[in-house]
Write a structure and sequence with these properties.
Blueprint (H helix, E strand, L loop, with lengths): L3 H34 L6 E3 L4 E3 L2 E3 L1 E6 L6 H13 L4 E5 L2 H4 L14 H10 L3 E7 L13 H4 L11 H20 L10 E6 L4 H7 L1 H15 L7 E4 L8 E7 L2 H4 L10 E7 L15 H13 L2 E10 L32 H14 L1 H6 L1 E6 L4 E8 L3 E8 L6 E5 L2 E5 L3 E5 L7 E2 L7 E8 L9 E4 L10 E3 L5 H5 L5 E10 L3 E9 L3 E6 L2 E7 L7 E9 L2 E10 L17 E8 L2 E4 L5 E5 L2 H5 L13 E2 L9 E7 L8 E4 L5 E6 L2 E7 L13 E4 L9 E7 L9 E15 L16 H5 L5 E5 L5 E11 L2 E3 L2 E3 L8 H9 L4 E5 L2 H4 L14 E9 L1
Parallel strand pairs: 4-5, 4-11, 5-6, 6-7, 7-8, 8-9, 9-10, 10-11
Antiparallel strand pairs: 1-2, 2-3, 12-13, 13-14, 14-17, 15-16, 17-18, 19-38, 20-31, 20-32, 21-30, 22-27, 22-30, 23-26, 23-28, 24-25, 24-27, 28-29, 32-37, 33-36, 33-38, 34-35, 34-37, 38-44, 39-43, 40-44, 41-42
């Protein structure tokens, strides 16, 4: 008979064997790296300080860019901008559900061409972090899992469950084998230097108890055994097995990360959230460039050597790819916005940060760390090898007040909640709170070529039970009914009435949204939210004598993307009753018909081939009825700027251009500020032809297509907002550390402004040297201002592609009289308009 002690001892022995196996695999992996990389590619290893590439320690800056969230024609431009922003690595998930949507049927074409994407990164001399997962979350439908996985008998996702482990290993092996065949790992000469297995598993591990602990060991064993020749990581995994590196995800990893769980692992940050993704109903949420920069400097000051911005470019959730209630626009507040335009100052301020930290590389990687505190909120962190190298981080943690810190004979002022970087322990070259980078304002301009659209319409037929072959006593669960092939599923039943009766139709629904009809007449629409997907509908109805048809159109807004037991989550109609006076009639078990999808989907009315399959009529004036298809043709907008649709006159539905879905829209779901979470919807230029582009809209609840606008987007409004105490401009730094002392002292702060593309500065929209306030696109004069500033800016900038305005009182001020005598530090604010 086995005792509990024996079971415990046996478990411990198994754990030790597992750990030994992982250690052996880790050693073998490093050996393979050095052998395979010799003469072909590069070796990749790590120690307790940093990643080691070709024998050299490195500090690395990375950004997340997801290949399915933009068309291939946009990839190169976005990747170039990322490289220009100072990134070394591009991080991407691998999206299982786009590669194997049907079990055994693989897709690596178009937006899903992972190999092409990785090769393109390599051609730009950048590295890749491949986050295989295969659970990715990423606000992506079903967290990246294909729907068919849910229907595997006996499966439990992300646990020590044999069906799940079988399919997970099969997918991971498929991807790794593909990467090897294409020679994409660094030792083979490719750009992949890191890979990730699993994703934020600590969030659910406790639910699975022993099965969770065993699973994470198995996942590590499985990954390392594939012998990629590059290190494996697990993000947010405090007990990551010995052979993989545990990493941090979050906004402030410099303060929240407990550190690597082994002495020979470096401190890596795999997700530094540059903003907050939004769900429909969310008000705007931003994260400032200053806060991101502070978090990165803080992390590097505490032995960090790698950060990855999530996202660096978010892109678009085309089609039905976004998870539950997530907006079609993804991480638009990233350094590169949804349209592929640089978001200033975030992009430029982080670029300057990267340069400052690269200047500090040698002491950061080889110096001895030291900490000195000057009170509760002032801190000095140094990395030094006396007589050879030194870098310092001066930190002010006060959230409201600036402070002066004493450091090696200098009094150095620090703005509130900021960090100054001194690559030589003498010269401040960067402060996280002080922005010298160019700023910009995004403009949405109605197209002059794509206007006066002529709309035609086609209405969906409201189905009844007789139209449906799928019958069941009760309404079927919605996820299992649609199997992720459509957002829509019809439910219908018939009841008899012995006379005209009035009452309320009441429906309890587990989510996400629903339309109701009685005898073909529209009754109403209800929906849940990201916080609570379930909802109840209560609508007045009138029953006629004889047979009555109750029809419901259930809707999903993406599948769940996170949490334990994802395979057991449900949606759809739960209970249906009719209440008339004191009588309640439960019709939940009244036999229901079911039909997946709407007719227009099946006929593909959004394609050139499909539009001819039905009779279209001119669209009526004003708001139209629910479940209506609209179509029109338009010419490609002028120029080559990005294109979008403004959909505020519509309510909820989907949009296609030339047969390609640009995603779900939901402008009727207003935020607490009374505005839609998203009003404009991106049409990538590669989707367009020069003329006669087919635009099709499926409106679910009723809208007016005459209000739809085709827009062109630009960032032709460029700005600078610089205080006098800004550090030296770093745009001209192309020097090594030995030159730093003499060169930085010669630099003077200046506003450097450059028009995008080949445009020229056409006008000065705002200029002030004094105490202006506001943001780019919305500046306001303060109490004082130099009378010379407008003339100085016009002389320096008009008619040029780029210009420099020295931050010099002798140039900017009226020499006869100081207009702001009480200001210790003045601020220069400039707003320029660029045009072709």
């Amino acid at each position: 008979m086995q005792t509990p002690f024996f079971d415990f001892f046996r478990g411990q022995v198994k754990m030790e064997i597992s750990m030994i196996r992982l250690l052996v695999l880790a050693v073998l992996s490093l050996m393979v790296t050095s052998v395979v990389g010799e003469g072909k590619g590069i070796s990749v290893a790590y120690d307790g300080r940093s990643m080691i590439i070709n024998g050299s320690r490195e500090i690395l800056f990375s950004g997340s860019i997801h290949y399915p969230r933009s068309p291939p024609e946009m990839w190169k431009d976005i990747l170039k901008k990322a490289k220009d922003g100072g990134l070394d690595i591009i991080s991407t998930y691998v999206f299982w559900n786009v590669h194997e949507p049907v079990q055994g049927q693989w897709n690596f074409e178009g937006n899903n061409d992972l190999v092409k994407f990785i090769r393109m990164i390599g051609e730009l001399n950048m590295y890749v972090m491949l986050r295989v997962g295969p659970f990715i979350e990423a606000e992506w439908n079903f967290g990246g899992f294909p729907y068919w996985l849910r229907e595997i008998p006996g499966i439990t996702f992300r646990s020590d469950n044999e069906p799940f482990k079988y399919h997970m290993q099969k997918f991971v092996s498929k991807i790794i084998d593909l990467m090897k065949q294409e020679k994409l790992f660094a030792p083979q000469g490719g750009p992949i230097i890191m890979a990730q297995i699993e994703n934020e598993y600590n969030n659910v591990q406790g639910v699975f108890k022993e099965n969770g602990a065993r699973y994470i060991q198995w996942a590590a064993n499985m990954a390392v055994a594939l012998q990629t020749g590059v290190p494996w990581v697990m993000c947010k995994q405090e007990d990551a097995p010995t052979a993989v590196i545990n990493t941090c995800n979050g906004r402030q990893c410099g303060d929240t990360f407990t550190g690597p769980n082994g002495p020979n692992k470096p401190s890596l940050w795999t997700e530094n959230w540059t903003a907050q993704y939004r769900v429909f109903g969310d008000a705007p949420s931003q994260r400032t460039a200053e806060d991101i920069a502070y978090s990165v400097a803080r992390f590097f000051s505490k032995n960090g050597t790698h950060t990855n911005y999530y996202m660096y470019y978010g892109g678009t959730n085309y089609g039905r790819s976004g998870s539950s209630f997530v907006t079609t626009r993804y991480y638009d507040e990233a350094p590169i916005d949804e349209y592929g335009l640089l978001r200033g100052p975030k992009w430029g301020h982080l670029k300057d940060l990267h340069r400052a930290l690269k200047l500090s590389k040698k002491p950061l990687l080889w110096g001895t760390p030291g900490v000195e505190r000057q009170g509760d909120d002032l801190e000095i962190r140094t990395f030094e090898k006396p007589g050879e190298m030194c870098a310092a981080f001066l930190i002010n943690n006060k959230t409201r007040d600036g402070a002066t810190i004493k450091f090696r004979g200098q009094d150095i002022y620090l703005p509130a909640k900021s960090i100054s970087i001194l690559p030589d322990c003498k010269t401040v070259v960067y402060n996280t709170q002080t922005i010298v980078a160019q700023q910009s304002s995004r403009n949405f301009v109605p197209s002059t070529k794509a206007c006066n659209l002529k709309w035609e319409m086609f209405r969906e037929t409201i189905l009844t039970t007789k139209d449906m072959s799928n019958k069941n006593k009760m309404p079927q669960e919605l996820y299992g009914l649609t199997k992720d092939t459509s957002d829509y599923a019809w439910y219908s039943t018939s009841i008899n009435s012995d006379g005209t009766k009035q009452g309320d139709l009441q429906v309890a629904n587990l989510g996400h949204a629903m339309l109701a009809f009685v005898n073909g007449e529209y009754i109403g629409f209800e929906h849940g939210s990201d916080v609570d997907k379930s909802f109840s509908m209560k609508k007045p109805i009138t029953l006629k004598p004889g047979q009555n048809h109750i029809t419901l159109l259930g809707m999903t807004v993406g599948f769940p993307d996170s949490g334990a037991y994802m395979e057991r989550k449900y949606a759809g109609v739960r209970a249906v009753t009719i209440v008339s006076g004191s009588q309640t009639r439960d019709i939940t078990q009244n036999t229901w018909g079911h039909e997946v999808g709407v007719r227009g989907e099946k006929l593909q009315l959004y394609t050139e081939q499909g539009v001819g399959k039905v009779q279209w009529t001119p669209a009526a004036k004003g708001a139209g009825p629910p479940l209506t298809w609209y179509k029109t043709k338009f010419d490609a907008p002028e120029g080559d700027c990005p294109v979008a649709l403004r959909m505020t006159s519509m309510a909820k539905g989907m949009v296609w251009v030339n047969g390609k879905s640009i995603g779900r829209y939901w402008t009727s779901y207003l935020t607490s500020l009374g505005q839609p979470s998203q009003s404009e919807y991106h049409i990538p230029r590669p989707f367009l032809k020069p003329a006669n582009n087919l635009l099709v809209v499926f409106e679910e609840t009723g809208g007016n297509p005459e209000g739809i606008e085709v827009l062109v987007i630009n960032r032709d409004t460029i700005c600078s907002f610089m205080p006098e105490n800004a550090p030296a401009d770093v745009d001209s730094w192309e020097r090594n550390d030995n030159q730093l002392r003499t060169v930085v002292k010669e630099l003077k702060s200046a506003a450097n402004l450059t028009c995008p593309d080949d445009k020229l500065i056409k006008s000065v929209e705002f200029a002030s040297f004094g105490d202006p306030t506001g943001q780019c696109g919305n500046y306001t004069m303060g109490k004082c201002n130099s009378p010379n500033i407008q003339k100085v800016v016009e002389q320096n900038c008009l008619g040029k592609k780029c210009c420099t305005i020295p931050l010099d009182r002798g140039i900017l001020d009226d020499k006869s009289k100081d207009s702001c005598p009480d200001l210790k530090y003045k601020t220069l604010a400039v707003q320029l308009k660029c045009a072709s």
